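Please check this protein record:
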Amino acid sequence: MTDLLEALMILCFGLSWPISIRKSWTSRTAKGKSLFFEFFIWIGYVFGIIRKFMLWSSGAGTGWLFYLGWFFYVLNIVEITIDMALYFRNVKLDKERDGK
């Protein structure tokens, strides 16, 4: 049951990141975004992936829910990395717009 709850939590986060990526892409501004906030979420996903790896290497991580959770952790870290890269693009665009 705990693997199911974890997979659902990560699924919900994973569904949220494409919305954030789309907003970052279309708004073309970094205003209202916090790189600090996104970095700590990114670090949290790294810890989640390490936990999954430790469970798997100890033989405790088995079953399709375990692997589904693993997949969503990796997917989420890729998505937040894209959003963080867009942050830097948007900071550059903000500076160009402001003439700095």
Notes: The chain has a mean pLDDT of 91.
